[in-house]
Amino acid sequence: MLLSFAAIILGLALLVWSADQFVDGATAIARHLGVSSLIIGITIVGFGTSAPEILVSVIAVLEGTPDLAIGNALGSNIANIGLILGVTAILAVVPIDRTILKREYPLLLIATVVMIWCLFDLKLDFIDGIMLLALLVIMLWYMIDIHRKNGIPLEGVDDDDEQETLMSLKVATGWVVVGLLILVGSSKLLVWGASNVAIALGVSDLIIGLTIVALGTSLPELAASISSLKKGQTDLAVGNVIGSNLFNSLAVIGIPAMLTSFTIDESALYRDLPVVAGLTFLLYALSRFPLGVNHQLTRLKGILLLACFVIYQLYLYYEVISSTT
To answer: How far is it, in rounded angstroms, from Cα 313 to Cα 195?
Structure first.
């Protein structure tokens, strides 16, 4: 057990570090190739923050623990809204741009509905994977097109600041390779540790994926929210969460489904998917209410989101205790 917990902790730490190096290297390569900041911000950075979830889910499915993969995806979505946005809003009021509610948020709603539809029969196959990834590509293209037409700047991708410190192509390529190798290795380490813990505690892979693994792979999003909070850019928190949940719903579930067909625990459909959908719609309702004033997440709304997350985690803990007694 101690070795398994050590593997989980080390795996999570390496996941976060290697994902960051991978994004930095990929961004530098894209700049050397003349790719615009717009495409880098929406694709590479968006993929990079979800890389831990994607790699963990792929490894989990290939090693015969698909419920760990599904729990990772659903649990990360729940943690992003309930924990990360909840804590961020408690620490500081989070303003919400009206354009996010009109443009990006409907995309998240569509992605959530399609994900639920694909999971509804309790199995995923190549067709489901193609459908989810095709939808992701369409949505990415739509966002790039909207940003290009409206000249909307992307935070975190500054040509002037980064051009001066741009790493060489050789160094960037090295970091991409190293980052990817460590991502794969740390994912295997995390899945191994999590599976052993699940067996030792007598709980399902789904529960472990929803709790330990999901919380760990959400660390990049938590770090991004804290960073934006320190910089006074609290409005980025909602955009980061929406983008991450979009990738979780479509890529984290879609990519493993393309590699192999698998079934999932029915409790994911009746217990966890309603929580994902409920929190997604609750975030929209809280963002819009009250009508006619500036849209924002106040501290009270943050407490509500965090309370939903805590209640859900306590319920999972209750189920674990009940199943082992």
So the answer is: 19
pLDDT under 50 in the chain at which residues?
160-164
Taking only the tens place, the pLDDT of each residue in 154-196 is 555 555 444 445 678 888 888 888 887 887 788 788 888 888 8
Phi, psi of 264 (to 5 degrees): -130, 160
Q: Measured at the alpha carbon of residue 271, what is the angle toward residues 270 and 272, in degrees to the nearest 5? A: 115
Strand-pair category, 296-297 with 262-263: unpaired
How many domains is the chain partitioned into structurally?
1
Helix (H) or strand (E) holding 2: helix 2-32
| Structural tokens at position 278 | 């409920």
| Crossing angle of helices 2-32 and 219-230, rounded to 10° | 60
Model pLDDT, residue 112: 95
Phi then psi dihedrals of residue 289, to 5 deg: -95, 140
**Rounded alpha-carbon distances, angstroms, from residue 302 to 24, 34, 81, 120:** 31, 41, 10, 30
Helical H segments across 202-235, by residue range: 205-208, 214-217, 219-230
In this structure, the number of other CB atoms found within 10 A of the CB of residue 274 comes to 11
Range of the domain at 51: 2-324
